[in-house]
Amino acid sequence: MLGINRKLAALEQQGKVINVGLIGAGQMGRGMVAQIEGMKGMRVVVTADIQVENAVNAYRNAGVKLEDIVETTDPSVAEKAVNQGKVISTTSSSLVTSLPSVDVVVDATGVPDIGARIAWDTIMNKKHIVMLNVEADVTVGPLLKQLADSSGVVYTGSAGDEPGAVMELYDLADASGFEVIALGKGKNNPLNLEANPDSVAAVAAEKGASPKMIASFQDGSKTMVEMTAVANATGFLPDKPGMHGLTGNVKELPAMFQNVSEGGLVENKQIVEFVNGVAPGVFAIIASDQEEVNHEMKYLSMGDGPNYVLYRPYHLTSLETPISVARAYFYQEATIAPWKGLVAETVTVAKRDLEAGEHLDSIGGFTVYGSILKAEDAKKENLLPLGLVDRNVRVNRAIKKGEYISYSDITQTKESFIWQLRKLQDDTLL
Question: Where, by residue number, does the polypeptide cross the bilayer (predicted)?
């Protein structure tokens, strides 16, 4: 099996490219367009954003000439332009998911409800879908994967996103015969459960990022969602609700992940965890019961055992997404997907005291944050998945800061598409 770089070069030599459709031209989307524009054998031929100038600017920033960017929502105009070597900017996500010339669609919206619709429409149009939308994946990913499998297309998370980077280490260790003890990621900033768009405004402005996105990092929601995706791909579970949030450096990781009875900090094996002090890296804690393997690991300066750490000190987010695009196209393989179904859940927690009748907002907002639980525990307590939270949800009782929010605590004013998919998933897969 040729390397992806050689496969792409060979494809271009044949006068062909993988035609990519992108939905969402924010920070992640812009980076991906620029990265792909410099690659062989691949091109983003159509980009959709609710503000069409964002799509135009994504191309302009990547060096595409203005005269080669066609703004349209008309499928026939778009298809003709793509065949002429031009690219399309549009406000229509359905144009991206249905355009015949598009081979693989990437969702970079970050909005769970929108991502669920994009994935559904893409699969229905018999195209591969790459999700840079982990929030949608942990909510309805098992259903979408089953639908994709039945349709003969690939449903996948993205390389470069932390779950995909963790999965890379897991696959190496598991295929090599190691026992995998734990999988995890570093957290870039101290956990601040009260973080909101106002409190992070200065940091967001400095980084040129969305305040809601930064808030979702600081309040831990993003970390919980990412490790839920890893859990659903591998079957690993949090050692405790919300995980421990350990602190240490890379060299300390093997000892930290020994059992408490052996001087470590955890109770179980096959767990997901986050650690302060190793960001922006991801890791896998591994072990072996083979004497010769342990001797070799020590010879290779991998530590003194019994645990060792595989550590990847970077993840390039959307800049690595093209690898998942190519892997789906050439090999019909997912980088990461919920192969184990719904084994963990990111549930909803009140960020502050909430009054009866108050509407919730969204991930990274002012009202709620997420915490990872075993799915069976979340189901037993009837807890609300974080990916279902939007402004159409209001609480029907007063809820104290730090309390879990259950389905019985809320009322919907309008049912979104992701709610419909979640009901279907709950009825058919669980």
Answer: none
In 3D, which of 111, 65, 110, 117 has the Cα closest to residue 96? 117
pLDDT confidence of residue 429 = 85
Can you give the pLDDT at residue 417? 97
Which segments of the chain have a pLDDT < 70? 1-2, 430
Q: CA-to-CA distance for 33 and 60, rounded, in angstroms?
A: 10
Which of 277, 295, 275, 276 is closest to 285 using CA atoms? Answer: 275
Any domain includes 62: yes
State residue 148's pLDDT score: 98
pLDDT of residue 255: 97
The predicted-structure confidence for 319-334, as pLDDT tens digits, reads as follows 999 999 999 999 999 9
Whether the CB-CB separation of 150 and 246 falls below 8 Å is answered with: no
Claim to verify: residue 282 and residue 348 sit in the same structural domain: no
Domain housing 8: 4-160+318-331
- Same structural domain, 148 and 254: no
pTM score over 0.70: yes
Cite the DSSP H helix spans in 14-155.
27-37, 52-61, 75-83, 93-98, 112-124, 134-151
CATH number for position 54? 3.40.50.720
Cβ pair 110, 135 in contact under 8 A: yes
d(CA 189, CA 318): 20
